């Protein structure tokens, strides 16, 4: 006879199913769009440029976020976490690794676009490959720290997925959170903001607006801002008194970032979109050059 598992505290049957359904939709949509971005990069020769490699790297990390969301959704349908405490640690590490890489990769794309439009030099293959390796290793360092005792991974309020445990709000958590947020959110946002401001100034000077320079920064802040604010709020206030349903909302919003990024950096990019169309239909794009700069 199958064992009946109790509902997570603070959630009804419908709410658990609802959160699981939303995360499943986010996972499937984001994974499909980013896999299309990845495969098109490999299959279409014109897409394989240094700049587009950074978009490829962003899509790769976003696929990882979608896999993390899929596991969380599957567990939500089961109404419990079936992979034990070790599985929780792995899930938390994998989620943080891909999320931090995604944020830094978006900053790397902004840096590339700044060079393309505002300087005479373009980033070369050696530079973008080094940047790609660095963002993964840098994210791996910060993601591994909770496994070593600096910070801690534990169940989210729904108890069907795992992330950084922000409920304690102790000195260990605060000492980890501040540098984590500085190096993996504040600095990337600053890089994106200054880079796109310079690009926007260049567009206004030339009268040629190639893409919406404010959209990448806005999307990053909207997707990851609520989760960041929750983590900082937990450093000064006891969040255990907040409804578990409310605590889950920032995490669910953050999991929309893979699909949003795919629309902004691949499908929202005229030339990259042309490469995807060529991959899907076999119709060769007419533009002589395909890169990730022009929309």
TrEMBL record:
Entry annotated with the keyword Glycoprotein: no
UniProt keyword list: Chromophore, Disulfide bond, G-protein coupled receptor, Membrane, Photoreceptor protein, Receptor, Retinal protein, Sensory transduction, Transducer, Transmembrane, Transmembrane helix, Vision
CDD domains: 7tmA_Retinal_GPR
GO MF term list: G protein-coupled receptor activity; photoreceptor activity
Pfam families: 7tm_1
PROSITE patterns: G_PROTEIN_RECEP_F1_2, OPSIN
Family annotation (InterPro entries): GPCR_opsins, GPCR_Rhodpsn, GPCR_Rhodpsn_7TM, Retinal_BS, RPE_GPCR
G-protein coupled receptors family 1 profile domain span: 33-265
BP GO terms, sorted: phototransduction; visual perception
GO cellular component: membrane
Transmembrane segments annotated in the record for this chain: 16-42, 54-78, 90-111, 123-145, 173-196, 217-236, 248-268
Cellular compartment(s): Membrane
Membrane topology field: Multi-pass membrane protein
Function: Receptor for all-trans- and 11-cis-retinal. Binds preferentially to the former and may catalyze the isomerization of the chromophore by a retinochrome-like mechanism.
Name recorded for this polypeptide: RPE-retinal G protein-coupled receptor
